[in-house]
Amino acid sequence: MLLCVDIGNTSIVLGLYDEKKLVQSFRLQTNIYQTSDEYAIKILSILDNNKINRNDIDGIMISSVVPQLDSVFSTLCKKYFDIDAKFVVPGIRSGINIRIDNPKELGADLLVGAVGAVNKYGAPIIVIDMGTAITLVYVNKDKELLGGAILPGLKTSFNALFQKASKLEEVGIAKPNKVIGRDTVSSIQSGMTYGLASMLDGIIKKMKEEQGEASVVLTGGEARFIITSMEEEAIYDENLLLDGLRILYNKNK
Predict the structure, then answer these.
(1) Is the pLDDT of residue 53 over 90?
(2) DSSP 8-state assignment for residue 104
(3) Cα separation values, 66 from 5, 32, 206, 221, Å
C-alpha cells in the first residue's frame, strides 16, 4: 500500500492507496512545533482505528510547502514505517514541462495538482487549489505549465477583515439565497461565496483569453462552497492532490 502525504500551511492531508484505489484519507492540523513522535502517535492511532496494519505500507510519497516539517516527516517515515519517503522536489519526473522563469520556485503542491489534473482530465487545463492561499495554474495542450496566479485564501482574507474591522462579526462559510444581503452575516457570506466565485470567473476568463479554452478543476477544502456560485464550468475534485502524489510515486519508482 502507498501512503500519500500533502503537507500544507493549515492542514496535512494523508491518503492510503491500494493500487489506484483510495482506501482511506484523513486530515491533521499543521503544527511546525510537533515532533515526529507526536505526529506518529496521531497517524498510527488513525491507522489502528481503521484496522490498517502499518506493515502493509510499502511506499510513502510526500509533497510539502512547509520546510520545517520535511525532516520531521522524513524521520517519522524511517522510524515508524522503515521507509525512506520520496519527496516532490525540483527535477522529479512528472510528465509536465515547467515553463516558468524559475522552475525551482514552483511549489510542490502546484506541480502535484497539475499532474493529477492532466492525468485525470487531460490538457489544456486550469487547476485551482483553494487553501491558505488560492492558486491557479495553467497547463497548455502540450502539457507545459506556463504559470498562474496566487490570491489570499477565503479564510485568510476574511480573518484579516474581521481583525481589522471590529464591528464585523466572524461568520461561517455559507451561500446565502441572494447576492444582496439583508443583514451583516448574509452580506459577509455573499462576499465570501459570490464575491470569490466572481473573482475566479474573471481570472479564468482572462486566462482563456490569453491562452485559449481550457477545462477547469477545483480542489481544496473550501472549493465545494464556491463552485456552485461560479459561472465558468468547473469540476470539483476533492482528492486531486492525493491522486497526483500517487501518480508521481509510480513515475519515480
Answers:
(1) yes
(2) G
(3) 12, 8, 31, 18
The CATH number assigned to the domain holding 242 equals 3.30.420.40
Distances (CA, A) of 24 to 2, 86, 220, 221: 11, 20, 17, 17
> Angle at which helices 108-121 and 240-251 pack, to 10 degrees?
90
Cα–Cα distance, 106 to 52 (Å, whole number): 34
- 72 and 28: one domain? yes
For CA atoms 151, 154, 193, 236, give the dihedral sign.
positive
Residues 64 and 106 placed together within one structural domain of the fold: no
Do 35 and 16 belong together in one domain?
A: yes
Alpha-carbon distance of 34 to 27, in angstroms, equals 15
- The share of the chain scoring above pLDDT 70, in percent, equals 98
Give the up-direction half-sphere exposure of residue 27: CA atoms within 13 A in the CB hemisphere.
Answer: 9
In a shared domain, residues 111 and 233: yes
**Domain range holding 76?**
2-87
Residues 81 and 151 in one domain: no
Which residue has cell 505500507? 57
Q: Residue 49, class by beta-carbon neighbours within 10 Å (0-12 exposed, 13-18 middle, 19+ buried)? A: exposed
Select which of 48, 56, 82, 109 is catalytic.
Answer: 109
The larger pLDDT score, comparing residue 12 to residue 168, is at 12
Question: Catalytic annotation on 82?
Answer: no
pTM: 0.92
Q: What average pLDDT does the segment 33-56 reach? A: 95
Q: Do residues 157 and 188 share a domain? A: yes
Write down the pLDDT at residue 157: 84
pLDDT in tens, 133-177: 999 999 999 999 999 999 998 888 888 888 878 667 677 888 889
